[in-house]
Amino acid sequence: MATDAPPPSKGGAGNDPAPHAPSTEEFVQVQESAEFGELRRSHRSFAFPLTIAFIAWYLVYVLLSNYAGDFMGTKLFGNINVALVLGLGQFLTTFLIAWFYSRHAAAKLDPKAEAIKSRMENRMETRTEGDA
Amino acid sequence: MSPAHTAAIELAAASDASEHRTLIISLFAAFVVATLFITVWAGRQTKNAADFYAGGRQFTGFQNGLAISGDYMSAASFLGIAGAIALFGYDGFLYSIGFLVAWLVALLLVAEPLRNSGRYTMGDVLAYRMRQRPVRTAAGTSTIVVSIFYLLAQMAGAGVLVSLLLGITSDAGKILIVALVGVLMIVYVTIGGMKGTTWVQMVKAVLLIAGTILITFLILLKFNFNVSDLLGTAASNSGKGSAFLEPGLKYGVTATSKLDFLSLGIALVLGTAGLPHILIRFYTVPTAKAARKSVNWAIGIIGAFYLMTIVLGFGAAALLKPDDITASNKAGNTAAPLAALEIGGGGDSTGGAILLAVISAVAFATILAVVAGLTLASSSSFAHDIYANVIRKGKATEKEEMKAARWSTVFIGVVSIALGALARDLNVAGLVALAFAVAASANLPTILYSLFWKRFTTQGALWSIYGGLIAAVGLVLFSPVVSGKPSSMFPDANFDFFPLENPGLISIPLGFLLGWLGSILTKEKPDEGKYAELEVKSLTGVGAH
């Protein structure tokens, strides 16, 4: 065990000396901070339900294709049927979700992540602000 | 006989006619020369490990998005999906949906955290909070298994396809093609590293998209941009009527085949975010934001491409007789080139010959770019995870590690030439689906638990990687893919105890379950400090390389 894991003082599995590599204690401190909790919540409360939703929607589509052939074969206009429209709907929702997530990330995640990162990498400021 | 020659004969005629073959070979050669030039140029700039493994991390989001598309859109998706649509109509189209929706898993859960917390390989993230040597060994094993299965399918496919397009029928000729593809990919990767591979993939993506737009446009033009008309002609020409536009022709036959389809669907949607050759592409950009941007570009490009393959596939069904499609390749892999030949004016026309040559060259470029990406993923993982961190216990110098990466590229290349040559007549379609299933069963659970579950332990990681891997490979071994059916690898043997061709339905939940069980059934305490590091880094990018 002791030979397997790198010493806890330096960040990560790497051997590169990083300019202001925070210590494990600092990482634990930040992980427990309200600010980081907020960032984690913004990511998880958005990404987790959305992932479950699009996988469910995809599975509904697969199951309909499997077990609801008549419904899927219903013609809507010309030779375009429900199956084709729902299939194209999967394309559309994929594009929309990608856009929706990116907008959320840019507005809600990036500024918080940026703030924590710059504070941790300029350690002196962390100390004074963190202890206040 | 029909007024025109049958398309299969036209293809043979076109391939036999030496001027057409000369044109195809010239285009192949032009691509090879251009990419070798790029490779040498990239090789000169490859000085350290970050250059070799991650292309210097200086690609833009757009460039990487293009390269991801080039890495992902394999010959299987270009020729395979178009062919499946041409033969089975709607059921062929279902593949592309799974392949595309899968990118959302990568976008929402994997790309950015991975970019922030890893350096070169998938193993970097999986082993971060765990005991290094066992988890690195497991991650390296799974990376190499997934990549080799995928690689083998591409190599064998290349042999069949290129020989067909060039009209080569002898076994020696096919083996020669496989060897040529293998040697080129070794050269790309050993000399150009990630930088060279990335540029080759970008060039290929542009060619593939341009070629597909051209053929799609010509097909739509023929039908006056009336998609309903195109679909109607395809349906009546297929001889299956409106059933051709509805689900069920391929997978709806029996209750087992329906379950198989569900299994495939799950493996496709969860597999992408666990494919090592895709994951390492996220390290080629400087930040997590750029990684996000590259996935967005990839979703746009890949989505547009799959939309066009629908036109390509139904176009082939509308323009060609079903028998002609299956005459040259039973799986329909030549439907797109045949449609190109037909839309250009048929086998005797210059237009047809030029379009056939263009599409053939694009297919060739596609194969080369994908095999290069796969070889790089497996040799990086061997050199970085297994050689540097397990065998040398992290004490290898950068020079030694890069040397190991180059030698393992040569080794993996030679092995895949040999296997590809042996497998050239086997049914290899199952191999790509298997690669996705292993990625979804062994890699994805471990990645997600590592990033998001505080109590995940080394034992959990080992159980989910090896458990998912063994379950997926084992179930395929005892499936109709390997034995028991005329289309099996060994049609005369009968050890097909597992009825489904795709193991995902069982092996993916099992991978998740084992990761959880392994973690709760151990006295081992999760390393909380390490998890704090990983979690904070993965969400903020602190100390990212």
Automatic annotation (TrEMBL), chain A:
It comes from the Bacteria. Keywords: Membrane, Transmembrane, Transmembrane helix. Residues 1-26 are annotated as: Disordered. The chain crosses the membrane at residues 46-64, 76-101. The keyword Transmembrane applies. It holds the Pfam family DUF485. This is DUF485 domain-containing protein. The lineage of its organism: Bacteria, Bacillati, Actinomycetota, Actinomycetes, Kitasatosporales.
UniProtKB/TrEMBL annotation, chain B:
Its main location: membrane. It is found in: Cell membrane. One of its GO terms (molecular function) is acetate transmembrane transporter activity. GO terms for biological process: plasma membrane acetate transport. The keyword Ribosomal protein does not apply. Keywords: Cell membrane, Membrane, Symport, Transmembrane, Transmembrane helix, Transport. GO terms for cellular component: plasma membrane. Gene3D superfamilies: Sodium/glucose cotransporter. NCBIfam families: sss. PANTHER family: CATION_ACETATE SYMPORTER ACTP, SODIUM/PROLINE SYMPORTER-RELATED. This is Cation acetate symporter.
